[in-house]
Amino acid sequence: AGILWIQSAGNSAQDHWWGTLADVNSTGDVDLLAGTPNGEPGGIQQADLIEVAPGDSADIALTWDQWHTTPASLTLNVDDRGENDDPDTPPVTTSMSEPPENELGAPVRDITVQNNDSQYHVYTIYITHSAALPSNVRFDLTYAGAASPSLLADPSYWRQDSSYGSPSHAASGSVMEPATSPYALAAGAAYWGDKSLEAFSSRGPTISGVVKPEILGYDGVTSVSGASDLAEGFYGTSAAAPNVAGAAALVKGANPTWSADQIESFLETRATQGSTHRTGVAETNAAGFGDLQIGLPAAQYTALSAPYRLVDTRIGKGAPKARLGKGGVITISTAAAHVPATATSVVINLLGVNAAGSTYLSAYPTTFANTSNVNFATTDPTAAVGAVVPLSNGTFKVRNYSAKIDVVVDVLGYFAPTAGLRYQPLTRPVRVLDTRTSTGGHHRAVVNNEVLTQSFASSVVPSSADSVVVNVTVTDDRGSGWLSAYPSTYSGTSTLNYAKYARANLAVVKLNKATSLPSIKLRLSGASVDVVIDVLGYFSSSAPMRYVSLVNPVRLADSRSGVGIAKNTLTPNRDATVTAAGINGLPTSTAAVLASVTATGAGLGNITTFAAGQSLPLASTVNYDANRAVSNAASISLGSGGLFKVHESTPSPVIVDLFGYFIAG
């Protein structure tokens, strides 16, 4: 009927037992456990024990797999043993039982016991049969209320290997009806505080082998279902299912034309293990596709040991040996760089070589969003830019806007939800090298084939850091060439290309940890230049921030049209304020953003972006000059209110496109 039915999976992972109907020694009682458990003498066990506290009750349910047929004649029995837990002594009262109503009755038996005594009572659970048992028919015992089966309380009885036939215990197969239906989205429970799977949350597979649950909702939440819930929290899959349903309602509200299947697919894809859903890896019978998350997945960074060249159209590597023409698109697989299938985005250096005229290159996952990563002109035909590009099934696209150009793509690392390092943005960028001055200890231009070692003081980059995020600038160049930044061994890839003009590029560089201080190497190939390095942040195992990559870039500011920033009001040495967090889907807790900053060129100068509330740092984001558009990626820390500042040394229209953001947790 077009309805997305979301159903609690059940709370029976610790209160469930299953096996195959059998009576090996012909006693008239069904064997609950037969064999020698875990290699220790155990024999055949035909009864289970439960203990019920004074004033409490317990419910015992038996089902077996003979639906749509005449079920076997089974009786569920419960003996009240009083305070005596010795199974070899007789019960203190006559047994309670639920026999079949008739031979065509459903294969379900259910008994509720109530302990009205002032002492704990022990109850014996067993199943009797009055006719021959069918072969290969599964049965399930499920306990609810204040009781758990003793078969689970003693691990020596757990069937944990294949030498005793099919496992007969517990969490597997404990999903309850109707969550077992393939038409229901079954919700397991995860505790909201640490997102961990609740031990009691029922698990699959179903009796027909369907993987369940599909997703985990949160419990321990506040609710209006009862006054006690507000103080103590609402627990169980009964809390998780409406949590998922509420998320589904939000998704439907945002996408009113979507079908039930589309909403379910969205929830599963956005769950914490959603990337495995997109790449065809099956969900698990404990957590499905993972914890509910309708926001984009936050990820952590892994650096490659050295940059890996994926594409070079000059030699036909990874793409045809031909310049990319107007509107041309290359689809690039990251598999050759050993980027895992779970990766959500990839960190690249995108290089365009010898553009035949004005054009720009754009990198994106599937759909071109009319934004650029790096711009070119006849007077400036070769340039590189760092970028973080979302992936679609391990691939992304590069598109050329107009004039023919060669394309080179180097992979530096990747982001994935389940492994890697987190980010620590610096509140203010720190300049660690400027060869025009004495900053960094190298006071002269760098010459062809020269290699510099740049160390980072512990006050800027701690020894625990794995990779550093830097803005590398070359200026006062005497010709053309390229600069490479790498940890210790040169791999032949470039970080920044230059010809005639000052250029800056954002780079994520893996650190050399073998030196006394974390360091990187810089190698120049070409005409001598001055080099400037500004540190923006670093990745380490102890850093707090994870990265969220937007599916499509968002234009955050454009001074030409007045989007996000007052139109045509940028003046020299006057800061403009841009709001980043709290809009465009970014949470107010966003600590830093990854953006592309473009100057369209009205003079010679530079742009600096920095957190609101901070003084102007000695650092630049983009260097520009007249009559050409110049872009660079930027990691921008945010100040109070999710704001950052844009400072220009000389007037130039500025565009800021948002690609992703960093949040704690």
Structure explained in plain terms:
This protein has helices at 150-153, 227-232, 237-254, 260-270, 274-278; strands at residues 5-8, 16-20, 48-52, 57-64, 74-80, 96-98, 108-114, 121-129, 138-145, 184-191, 215-219, 298-312, 329-333, 345-353, 359-364, 374-376, 383-390, 395-400, 406-416, 422-434, 451-455, 465-475, 480-486, 496-499, 503-510, 519-526, 530-540, 545-558, 576-579, 592-599, 605-611, 622-624, 630-637, 643-648, 654-664. The protein is mainly β and 665 residues long. An eight-stranded antiparallel sheet has the order 17-14-19-12-28-35-30-33, with no helix packed on it.
- Give the tally of β-strands: 35
Alpha carbon gap, first and last residue? 40 Å
Instruction: Specify the biggest β-sheet.
Output: 8 strands, antiparallel
Overall form: elongated
Radius of gyration from the alpha-carbon trace, in angstroms: 32 Å
The total count of helices amounts to: 5
Q: Mean pLDDT, rounded to whole units?
A: 87
List low-confidence stretches: 36-41, 152-168, 275-281
Taken as a percent bin, the fraction of beta residues is: 35-45%
Percent of residues in helical segments?
under 10%
Strand order of the largest sheet: 17-14-19-12-28-35-30-33
Structural class: mainly beta
